[in-house]
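>> received
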Amino acid sequence: MSVYSDASSEELGDELQSLGWYHYDLSRHAAEALLLSNGSDGSYLLRNSKEGPSWFALSVRAKDSVKHFHVERRDGGYMFGFNEFPTLQDFVSHFANQPLLGSETGTLIVLKSPYPWRVEEPSIYESVRVHTAIKTGCTENDLVAAAPSLGTKEGYLVKQGAIVKSWKLRWFTLNRYELKYFKDKESEEPIRTLDLKSCSAVQFDYSQDRVNCFCLVFPERTFYFCAKTAVEADEWIKILRWKLSQTRKGR
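>> returned
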């Protein structure tokens, strides 16, 4: 199966084809898998966006997550962030100077190196030594495709304690089906990892004496979080609900 999106925009027979880090119809899921497995902090690539033929997505690896930013082609030029570039050469020259991006969650990312579309691959293959069936009587209808749910996100949230009901600011990262929280952004070891496969619901919460709150319901405990803004809370809820829907598909 191709890693490129079925819902691609029209084939671009123009200058972008000369850009070595333009990945055409690479999907969001595949871009995240590619950058997380083979890229490094600050690696980035440009790909088509489902928003329309004049829209593109810049996917950037930021430590253990991948951020996506819109790029718009308008009147032969390119709109990115707060800048407008009249030509593709101007656009590419901007990236050659390793620009610094700041996301809505406060994450600062230095765009260090483009991830190339063509990568050299070794011609090494394993030899089959054992080939037998574990089951019998199954047909092609029993084949169920499975892949990890990526959709990364990170940012600061205020979390309520379990015993002492005080609120503390923590750094959160969401990767695959794991929601981890750390003492702060610089901490390497998480305080705790929540397995979303055990979570039954995520929803807005209005029971706390705070705004922009939501909760995650687990069998042993309900976790309460508050975001800085209603927009941030809504973004967390949307991606967490999507994660839960992916876990239920495999049940």
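>> The helical segments are 28-38, 88-96, 230-249.
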